[in-house]
Amino acid sequence: MEDYSSVNCVSDTVFFRIRGEKIACSRQRIAALSSPFNAMLNGCFSESLLQDIDLSENDLSPLGMKTIAQFSQTGSLNDTLSPEALLEILVFANRFFCERLKDACDRKLSSFISSRQDAIDLMECALEENSPVLAASCLQVFLHELPDCLKDEQVVRIFCNATKQQRSIMVGHASFSLYCLLSEVAMNTDPRSDVTACFLERLVEAAMNSRQKQLAYHQLGCVKLLRKEYTEAEHLFSAAFEAGHVYSIAGLARLASIRGDKVTAYKRLSSVMSSYPPLGWMYQERSLYCEGESRWEDLEKAMELDPTLIYPYMYRAASLMRKQNVEAALAEINRLLGFRLSLECLELRFCFYLALEDYRNALCDVQAILTLSPDYRMFEGRVAASQLRTLVREHVEQWTTADCWMQLYDRWSSVDDIGSLSVIYQMLESDAAKGILYFRQSLLLLRLNCPEAAMRSLQLARQHAASDHERLVYEGWILYDTGHCQEGLQKAEESISLQRSFEAFFLKAYALADSSTDPSCSTTVVSLLEEALKCPSDRLRKGQALNNLGSVYVDCGKLDLAADCYISALKIRHTRAHQGLARVHFLRNDRSAAYEEMKKLIEKARNNASAYEKRSEYCDRELTKADLQMVTQLDPLRVYPYRYRAAVLMDSHKEKEAIAELTRAIAFKADLHLLHLRAAFHEHIGDISGALRDCRAALSVDPNHQEMLELHSRVNSQEP
């Protein structure tokens, strides 16, 4: 700084000299930028009496100082500033604690991020200069580009090397959530990779409470186990188990088994089963360490407690196949595939068909696998599924395009979704109308509860659209499926403005019916579906439109028109229309006809759990119980049968049995409706703590569920 010079009166104008250039500033405006500047210019420092102050040693350019002077007057930064100039000012602002100036630079720099490389370059500065807005903007770019950005070493280095303070700058107190996401993405890509291990190590560091530590220790233990780092894995599983993560005992048991000590593995699981309420996974894990009848008993118990576990079905099917009981083996694996589309099960069934030299069905399964996961590798990752498909195809007579359409029509009509997927996969190799086929594929995948694969197919449909109006339809469905209903409607209208088409009218009708609460909109929906039916399309889609139109007519009380729609749909083999027609019969007080209509659907549909469930509404109590028991056998994930059986038990004053029925289902599917009903039952028998526990669990699923909120409020007022 310059030498002290006495002056009688200090002017408000102060000149900051930088590299020989003087910049005039308001002393009080600059002083207002920060406490250090105020102390320097108005306090006991020599600069408080100077009009000419040298700032050349502070890595600031004349342009930077002029910008700061302007900011001190206006409170805003010039829009023409370059990122380099803003970085310079940001560093200066941080050094002199000019928080408003720093925040303005922080936000302005954020607007310059247009690519991953920009984010990489600016993240370093953001972390060094403690700029949370800039860091968050850079992070947003990385997260939008997951999982691809994790192939970039610079991005990975940022996440792996970030200190606790730097993580706080990036995400505040959400470090655990960030590394939960990153580690999940990395595990899905390659659970054995160094990147996955690094992210999980950061997750352990970020864990603050007991639950977070349980999850972090266990997941890192799993990765260490896969990487064959057994000592570290054992330490982590032990830490997780001691923190309360019961499932980590499975990791400890597997480590004991790897070391050749199956007895210890068995004992560890048995110990847990005697100390905690038994769950399906406990019996499944223990079955790995015993033989013969003991293994079968454990697997049976595992399926009883949790019918959604995959391994028991696969083990039973493989055992039956080894005994040459082909039909029973296929029935076992088909039973699981009826409610849970699993790549492992499709692979096992593919192997069964190969062994039987049933190459047509083997091809069907491998094509379904490739639809769900194009890069899937079979036989423990040793062979690409695409390679096996090539080999199997040599043994199968090739279908023409016409054959494929006939096969698709037959399988779609019989509600054989996996078979339909396979046919579409084959058609995509040769058919020119790929957009339409990818769209059909997405519909099937949604029906099979594979939303990620369905979205991938929709995006491919958009990519391969044959025209602008077709592309707009697929964009509309993408928007609709991601919760942007109004934007989806706009896309449908844009498409119609270019060309009237079945799919555009159907999309508009579907989105409008789903989003509007105005009863009068049903007239518009009817009109749109009628317009759709006037446009060219195949019978598969027209059957769907007729079915939807029938549903709208039923809701409007126009049963004759509804029946006509359903009958027309059935004439073109839209099998699901039986359900709509059954509803019409029921509303006409003809339960017998409704029952018979659903019987026809059950006979035709390959996947018919929902048909049994619907038919249960049209028969007496004993037949209802039988139908719902069949539903649970075919698809244990459907919750209505459990609710019905529990309600019947409650009506019979069998409160404990009713709660046990719900508890059995909640153990493997914490469904909101099941929790709500069990909470009400707990309240009824005076178990206030149990009711509160279920209320809180349900509200964690849906915090705005009105009935649950009312029950929680009522129960809470009863708590002593």
Automatic annotation (TrEMBL):
- Ranges occupied by TPR repeats: 543-576
Name the UniProt key words of this record, in alphabetical order. Coiled coil, TPR repeat
What the entry lists under PROSITE patterns is as follows:
TPR (PS50005)
Q: In which pathway does it act?
A: Protein modification; protein ubiquitination
The UniProt entry, under SUPFAM superfamilies, shows: POZ domain, TPR-like
Query: Which residues, by range, are in coiled-coil regions?
Result: 588-615
- Which residues belong to any copy of the BTB domain? 12-113
Is Transmembrane helix set as a keyword in this record?
no
The transmembrane residues are none
Report the Gene3D superfamilies cross-referenced here: Potassium Channel Kv1.1, Chain A, Tetratricopeptide repeat domain
Q: Which domain of life is it from?
A: Eukaryota
Gene Ontology annotations of biological process type: negative regulation of ethylene-activated signaling pathway
Q: What is this protein called?
A: ETO1-like protein 1
- The organism named in the record is Acorus calamus
